[in-house]
Amino acid sequence: MADLKQIEIARLAGVSQATVSRVLKGDPQVNDEMRERVLAVVQELGYVPDARAQSLRSQRTRLLGLVVHRAPDALAGDPFFSALIASIIEQAGRHDYHLCVDTARTARSQRAIYEELLRTRRVDGLILVESETHDKRIERLSCEGFPFVLIGRYDPADAVCSVDNDNVGAAFMATDYLLRTGRRRIAYIGGPAGLTVTRDRLQGYKNALESHGVGYDPRLLAFAEFTERSAASAMAELLSLTPPPDAVVGLDDLIALSAMREAKRHGCRVPDDIAFIGFNDSPLCRYVEPSLTSIAVEIPVLARKAAEMLIALIEGREPQPKRQIVPARLVKRESA
Amino acid sequence: MADLKQIEIARLAGVSQATVSRVLKGDPQVNDEMRERVLAVVQELGYVPDARAQSLRSQRTRLLGLVVHRAPDALAGDPFFSALIASIIEQAGRHDYHLCVDTARTARSQRAIYEELLRTRRVDGLILVESETHDKRIERLSCEGFPFVLIGRYDPADAVCSVDNDNVGAAFMATDYLLRTGRRRIAYIGGPAGLTVTRDRLQGYKNALESHGVGYDPRLLAFAEFTERSAASAMAELLSLTPPPDAVVGLDDLIALSAMREAKRHGCRVPDDIAFIGFNDSPLCRYVEPSLTSIAVEIPVLARKAAEMLIALIEGREPQPKRQIVPARLVKRESA
DNA sequence: TTGTAAGCGTTATCAC
DNA sequence: GTGATAACGCTTACAA
Questions:
Q1: In terms of Cα–Cα distance, which of B183, B234, B241 is closest to B209?
Q2: Residue B325, CB half-sphere, CA atoms under 13 Å: how many?
Q3: ∠ CA A225-A228-A232 to the nearest 5 degrees?
Q4: pLDDT tens, N- to C-terminus, chain A (336 residues)
Q5: Is B144 close to A1, i.e. CB distance below 8 A?
Q6: Residue A101, class by beta-carbon neighbours within 10 Å (0-12 exposed, 13-18 middle, 19+ buried)?
Q7: How many C-beta atoms lie closer than 10 Å to residue A191's C-beta?
Q8: Cβ(A285)–Cβ(A291) below 8 Å
Q9: Which 271-290 residues of chain B touch chain A by CB within 8 A?
């Protein structure tokens, strides 16, 4: 069973080993009668070619690589990555590719992992997430001509293949929705001020206010760390304004959620007194009370497109366009 | 850069290609002077051996396989798998192994995936989760002598290598706690009835009832798929009983949460009218209202042990003991 | 101690 | 059309 190779099939079918290979590859040049004979033996013995030998010979492993920069416990709680992984696997599977996932916590181990995956040719291509603005890895991969696709933003945008969600558009969508439902004093709680996502979404927020002719009040802006407490205290401060905000756009679901809790603790009714919108449409949203309206960034779409692009690159097709933007989607629930 | 092989290193270092291989393998037989020469060239050119060639030659891919039986969207929201994946990767990495994750939704595709991973020798071993009581895959793998470790239970227990959390004990712990806090009509919502985890936890539930001398009422049992709707409708049915349950043990946090929401929608107060306990202590638990009491199964420990055992098997060491049990832990919150 | 050479199981290029 | 045969890049007897 274990040592079943083409040569064995060939012997039993009374043909040469090369013919077995041809039949398996679907070569149209082979005689029907021989094809039948070979396929019969293959079927009977359940022969499947050895991926290792194929990899060496074809210089292709049919393995996509994904490296995640999170400690295991951080990864564990993050719905983004599990969604990403699951969707990449699915899309890869359609093209008969598999996914190899690695984690790299420290900067050193990151370099090592990339080095390893790239140089050992263990994977045919890489999907990169959470890249920084000037990312050595990216320059490196570009130089080497190694196939890779970025999830996120990069400048110059057309230098690399990338997919991203439309952060400006997503925040516009959230704010616009609140304005349409009659809210006028809309606060924005961002994450750390340096993050591009914080800034992009702030931009979308401003755009929406402007498009409705609603004045922009800088006092309604707050920035929080990614902790419950930080978001809560930002919210407390916003509530001390007169008049207080009647809606809040939070950078992500956890921030929105923590803010919402704080508001409730101050006796606000949600959504009557104040509405809340988060981002990511994480599983959490459905389970809290009131359930949290959220802007879904379509991670499965993102992942599918990334995998699709990467496979195209690997197989020598130049993806067009090189940059794809996935629109966001409003998931309406009780909080707004 | 791309076509850098040992023979090239050998040429530049003025040695034979075999010597390069020996140096890289850390063979103590080689002359120090030669080793220096070779390593210098290796360093300078940043040579790394081709994993594909190594795989073919050594008959080892250094890849562990994990197959997950969930649709991508079900996987996406499930903290269990992300925790599992993350911890396996980490442990594997310590031994210079990588992880290949696949999903298989349908029974047919499951077979196909196993077939593929096993027969193509794409991975050196498999970690199996969510096995069923009489699992063809397991018999198959055993027959073939393919290295694999089960996360979960299997009979006879010493036929295969496995790690498991103490599901019977965990459910006992949950049910016992509810009984001690005065609950008497305790319902159990399992997952699909064939799953061993469903049955083991049912057993623990029954054991606890018995140990408290509380009668077992089969009407208080329900089985749900791993979807919100399914758990909710199971809960709705339980609520229609007279009298309704005063506590629910859910197979996992998501099931417990979905059930809890359904109960609240029916006007039940939690925990006053009805208490809820889930399993896994997922991040979600803290954010819902009321926060969910949960039995923590130590997934990282489970994953680490599984990976450790699998690697031992692959490398020809017989793990002792063949079965490892990881105890559970009660995390008390508001819902019970 | 180092070099030579025979595979590992495929695929692909030749002749026939 | 089909069958030898040479790679693919590495490991490892075996020879020197």
A1: B183
A2: 11
A3: 90
A4: 457 899 999 999 999 999 999 999 988 888 898 999 999 999 999 899 999 999 999 999 999 999 887 777 767 767 778 888 999 999 999 999 999 999 877 766 777 777 778 889 999 999 988 766 567 778 888 888 899 999 887 777 778 899 999 999 999 999 999 999 999 999 999 998 877 889 999 999 999 999 999 999 999 999 998 888 899 999 999 999 999 999 999 998 989 999 999 999 999 999 999 999 999 898 889 888 899 999 998 889 999 999 999 999 999 998 889 999 999 999 999 999
A5: yes
A6: buried
A7: 21
A8: yes
A9: 282-284, 287-289
Q: Is the sign of the CA dihedral B269, B274, B277, B278 positive or negative? A: negative
Nucleotide nearest to B8 (CA to C1'): D9
CA distance A58 to A65: 18
Place of tokens 């946090």: B253
B144 neighbourhood in chain A, CB within 8 Å: 1-2
Torsions phi, psi of A275, nearest 5?
-105, 155
Whole-angstrom CA distances from A93 to A10, B62, B72 are 30, 21, 12
- Cβ pair B79:A77 closer than 8 A: yes
User: Which residue type sits at B241?
Assistant: L
The answer, yes or no, to whether the previous bond of A218 is cis (omega within 30 of 0) is no
Q: Counting beta carbons within 10 angstroms of the beta carbon of residue B232, is it exposed (0 to 12), middle (13 to 18) or buried (19 or more)?
A: buried
- CA separation for the pair A323, B176 (Å, rounded): 56
Chain A residues lying within 8 Å of B50, measured CB to CB: 56, 120-121
Q: Does this model's pTM top 0.90? A: no
DSSP assigned state of B315 = T
- Residue A317, burial from CB neighbour count under 10 angstroms (0-12, 13-18, 19+): exposed
Q: Nucleotide C7: nearest residue by CA–C1'?
A: B57
